Amino acid sequence: MKKSIIIAVLLFGLIAQAQNKKWTLKECVEYALENNISVKQSELDVELADIEKLTAKGNFVPGINAGGGVSENTGLSFDPVTNNARTTTFLSASGSINMSYTLFDGLRNFRQLQRADISKLASQYRLDKMKDDISLFVANGYLQVILNKANLKVLISQNEVTKEQIQRTEELVEAGSLPRGDLLEIKATDASEQQSIINAQNNVQISLISLAQLLLIKDYEDFDIEDEGYNIVDDGVSSRDVADIIASAKENRSEIKIAEQNVELAQKDLQISKGSNYPTLSAFFGYNTRYANTPNFSQEVDPNNPTITTQIGTVEATGQSVVAEFPNTSLVEVPADPLLDQLYLNDGIGYGLQLNIPILNGFNIKGSVQRSRVSLERAKFQLEQAELDLESTVYQAYVDAKGSLKSYEAAQLALESQELAYSYAKERYDVGLTNAFDFSQSKLRYDNASIELNRAKYDYIFKLKVLELYFGIPATELKF
Fold first, then answer.
1. Mean pLDDT of 104-115
2. Are 93 and 290 in contact (CB under 8 A)?
3. How far apart are CA 83 and CA 77, in angstroms?
4. SS3 assignment for the chain
5. All domains in the chain, ordered by first residue
6. What is the pLDDT of residues 192-250, one digit of tens each?
7. Confidence of residue 353 (pLDDT cuts 50, 70, 90)
């Protein structure tokens, strides 16, 4: 009984712990990279690239094929062994094995293998880019939840102050120190703040659902994140010159690497197209054999009378007959040879070389080469455009990070000013030197300044991490 109670308590504790689990940003990113559908599709592209490489390697292996067949013939048919026409029913079988190997094809097989290696590398870069994008999406969604939670805390905290003011104002109104209109004004402020709290709670829940959907987590109700310990962590990237960040981005970012691999792929396609202009030399070897169960006929000597004397001519001058002895044979039907004997006796081989020289083929090869040249030029332009786009994007990210830092610093100063103004207004209101409306307006400005500081803080955190990502820091190593 005691053991059952202990087990039940442990299970209840585990269930409660699972329900109260709060996901960290690192856990969310790792979970997304393992379960996101787009990432899985990119991983499948890498697998397809491996298959493409395996196929390219197979071009260097001889082609070997074997075949065989069994048939039964009735009526007039040709014996596959003797090639004689016979009217009978017989069973026949044949088998063959053929091998071919390309000795030279304009180095196209070699180029195909090189192309497969480049294609696999490009697929890996696309996977890396997809992981970076997913990591940023998750980080942005995560920070949005933290921002909404921080705003909710501000509203709840300030509403507690408002409730204290209501209680104090009620006492002052009952004592006749303040007009009843001030109490109504404070209560109206409380009602407005309650509405803002409800909206903030909805924003928290919506942002949590959006993050859970991004992670493919269906348990929306129990999903929550760890919202403590996330501050501005700057490893010095923001203080670097923008030219250094752009240079590092061009060296490390997957967008450039993908475009570079596309140029190399286009170059290999051009080389493969040119290889079709060269002759193709291949070797072949074949082995075949056959079997039939048709009986054979054999000339056999009569053991009782092994020879016979037969006139073969006459001497013209004397008229004397010329005779000779011949074996006394007769045609005797014998059964078909055994299967293994026939397979050995009826086999044959063939081997040789085959040369194919392209002369005129409707300009197909020429057109293929020209298309490959155009594709190569397009890939070069795309690489150039990718470098320009990345430079523009990094510069924009740099400006955004600098601007968001200034906004964050300005929001800090604004909050400090509004906090002083609010404290001053509160002191004046407590001694009756200002009315409830002016006090509420001062408190509202202070609340808005607190919310704006939260927004500026997390906006700067996100834009700083974007800048660090462009600088070459892996998404899984970003510090918050």
1. 89
2. yes
3. 9
4. CHHHHHHHHHHHHHHHHHHCCCECHHHHHHHHHHHCHHHHHHHHHHHHHHHHHHHHHHCCCCEEEEEEEEEEEEEEEECCCCCCEEEEEEEEEEEEEEEEEEEECCCHHHHHHHHHHHHHHHHHHHHHHHHHHHHHHHHHHHHHHHHHHHHHHHHHHHHHHHHHHHHHHHHHHHHCCCCHHHHHHHHHHHHHHHHHHHHHHHHHHHHHHHHHHHCCCCCCCCCCECCCCCCCCCCCCCCCCHHHHHHHHHHHCHHHHHHHHHHHHHHHHHHHHHHCCCCEEEEEEEEEEEEECCCEEEEEECCCCCEEEEEEEECCCCCCEEEEEEECEEEEEECCCCHHHHHHHCCEEEEEEEEECCCCCCCHHHHHHHHHHHHHHHHHHHHHHHHHHHHHHHHHHHHHHHHHHHHHHHHHHHHHHHHHHHHHHHHHHHCCCCCHHHHHHHHHHHHHHHHHHHHHHHHHHHHHHHHHHHHCCCHHHCCC
5. 24-61+105-278+358-477 (1.20.1600.10), 296-334 (no CATH)
6. 889 989 998 999 999 999 999 888 888 878 889 887 766 777 777 778 888 888 898 88
7. very high
Per-residue pLDDT of 46-81, as tens digits, reads 999 999 999 998 888 899 999 988 888 777 766 666
Q: Which two tokens stand for residue 189?
A: 């402020």
Q: What's the angle, vertex CA 102, arms to CA 101 and CA 107, rounded to 5?
A: 150
